[in-house]
Amino acid sequence: MARITASVYTSHVPAIGAAMDLGKTHEPYWQPLFKGYQFSRQWIQDNPPDVVFLVYNDHATAFSLELIPTFAIGTAAEYEVADEGWGPRPVPKVIGHADLASHIAQSVIQDDFDLTIVNKMVVDHGLTVPLSLMYGERDPQAGAWPCKVIPFAVNVVQYPVPSGRRCYELGKAIRKAVESFDEDLNVQIWGTGGMSHQLQGPRAGLINQAWDNKFLDRLIEDPAGLAQVGHIEYVREAGSEGIELVMWLIARGAMADINGGPKPRLAHRFYHVPASNTAVGHLILENT
Questions:
Q1: What is the DSSP letter of 97?
Q2: Rg over CA atoms, the chain
Q3: What is the C-alpha to C-alpha distance for residues 122 and 241, in angstroms, rounded to an integer?
Q4: Identified catalytic residue from 97, 103, 125, 272
Q5: Could you tell me if 285 and 188 are in contact, meaning their C-beta atoms sit under 8 angstroms apart?
C-alpha cells in the first residue's frame, strides 16, 4: 500500500530560484533564507520520498485566462520546465508517476471532486522552486530530480478561487486515494505558495508577520478551524496573493491525524522576511 509519510510546506518565490540559478545564495541578503532550509535538505536525504504530490499554482505558463481549471492533476510521464520570459530555469525536467496520478484522479473524482486531467503541460517556478529549496542546485544535464513528482495545480490567481474548506476536504480525498494504491510507495505531499504578499496596488509589498505566524500555529494545531477562514480575511490580512495559502490546506488535510491517526511530529519550522518583498514560510510535518 502506498502511504503519505510527511507533508512539506514552503513558499515558492521566483526570486529564490533566480538567486540559486545565478549563484547568489551566499550573498548577505540571501544567506538567512537559505540557512533556514539547511535542515530540510538533510531531512529529505534522510527521508527520501518515492513520489512527491506537489500542490502549486501555475503562473500563466501551462494555463491562461482562456482556460482556468480550479484543480488540475498532471498525469504525464514527464514535464518540461517552462520558459517564463527569460528562458527555462536551468534545472532538470520533472519525471511524473502516471500510474499513481491516474489512480488518484479516478479515486478523487469518484469522491465528487472535479479535477482537470492534464496529459501534457510545462511546469513553472511554482513547482521547481520548492524542489530546488529542498534538494539544492542540480545540473539539468546530470539527471532527473531524486523523486517522481505529481504536479497538482490550483487556481489561486483568477477569482473565483476554491475555499480553504474545499482544499482541506480535497486533501482528505487525496490521502484516501494514495492509501488505496496497490504499490509500496513512500509519498510526500507538499503545499506551496504564500505567505503574506501583495504584488500590486497601494498595498504592494505588504507583509503581515503576526498573521503569518498565527497561520502556521493553526496549521499545526487547528487545521479544521483554519479551513473555515474565508477569502476576505486572507486578502485583508495577507494581501491579494496571500490567498495562495489555501493550497497548504490540501497538504494538511492529507495528514494522518485528520483521518483518525496520531498528531504529526513537527520536524522543522522556519519563517523569514523579506525575500523579494515577500514573507517566506516553511514547515515539515511527519506522520507518526
A1: -
A2: 17
A3: 22
A4: 125
A5: no
Of 134, 130, 177, the C-alpha closest to 47 is: 134
- Domain of residue 274, residue span: 3-286
CATH number reported for the structural domain that contains residue 221 in this entry:
3.40.830.10
Q: Active-site residue 125, yes or no?
A: yes
Q: How many domains does the chain have?
A: 1
What distance in Å separates the CA atoms of residue 69 and residue 60, rounded to the nearest whole number?
12
Amino acid at 30: W
Which cell numbers hold the place of 87?
A: 528562458
Tell me the average confidence (pLDDT) per consecutive run of 10 residues in the chain, 288 residues long.
97 97 97 98 98 97 95 98 95 97 98 97 98 94 91 96 98 98 98 95 96 98 98 96 97 96 98 94 97
CA distance 161 to 155: 6
CA atoms within 13 A on the CB side of 277: 10
Q: Which of 12, 97, 103, 197 does the annotation list as catalytic? A: 197
